[in-house]
Design a protein that fits this description.
There is one protein chain. About 20% of the residues lie in helices and about 20% in strands. It contains five helices and eight strands, in the order βαβαβαβββαββα. A six-stranded mixed β-sheet has the order 7-6-1-3-2-8, covered by helices on one side. Helix 3 runs parallel beside helix 4. The longest helix is centred in the last third of the chain and has 18 residues.
């Protein structure tokens, strides 16, 4: 099986019943990564390649309260990083972004998402190849789903028919925190690998 072949549920590793790591507070702002959302907070889960660089994009934004990295969109419960990299979990690497919509809108969050990766590459992002690097937007509400699909339509129009967006948009099926050493990785390791850049498509905001 190729690294770019998506598995089915009956091919997936079984996983485990308990979480793989005890979470620590956010390395930068000390927020509780596992805390329930407050009434003024909103959350969306995004996959745009290697989650180290992707997470840094979002924790730097005004209005973002907290970020964490993890695994979503697959079948294996509480997977390890090694299991996800094997391609046998169905998960993609994602960033969970908690934000204050009174300060930064979902549209602004998604603008960063679209413009900082190439959403047309399928099961890869640049030199990172495999199903765990696929582009994805996992929504928590019907309103988020509507906004996400509308922004995709606008970006597809900007790209034209020769470049087809492959981003997966669906309601969040699951989210599992990645191991502690992955959380805010590039703050802990400033010279670490970052595969995220400005390779997406840009267009004037509406």
């Amino acid at each position: 099986m190729r690294k770019t072949d998506m598995i089915s549920a009956d091919q997936a590793l079984p996983g485990r019943a308990t979480a793989i790591a005890q979470m620590e507070p956010h390395f930068i702002n000390q927020t509780d990564l596992s805390a329930p959302l407050l009434p003024h907070e909103e959350c969306i889960v995004l996959g745009l390649g290697c989650f180290w660089g992707a997470e840094r994009l979002f924790w730097q934004l005004d209005g973002v309260i907290s970020t964490s990295v993890g695994y979503a969109g697959g079948y294996t419960s509480n997977p390890t990083y090694e299991e996800v990299c094997s391609g046998l979990t169905g998960h993609t690497e994602v960033v969970r972004v908690v934000f204050d919509p009174q300060i930064i809108s979902l549209q602004q969050i998604l603008r960063v998402f679209w413009e900082k990766h190439d959403p047309t590459q399928g099961m890869r992002q640049g030199g990172d190849i495999g199903t765990q690097y696929r582009s994805a937007i996992y929504t928590l509400t019907a309103e988020q789903q509507t906004v996400a699909k509308a922004t995709m339509e606008r970006y597809q129009e900007a790209l034209g028919a020769e470049h087809v967006i492959t981003t997966e948009i669906q309601s969040l099926p699951n989210y599992y925190f990645a191991e502690v050493y992955h959380q805010q990785y590039l703050a802990k390791n400033p010279d670490g690998y970052c595969g995220i850049g400005g390779t997406g498509v840009c267009f004037p905001p509406q």
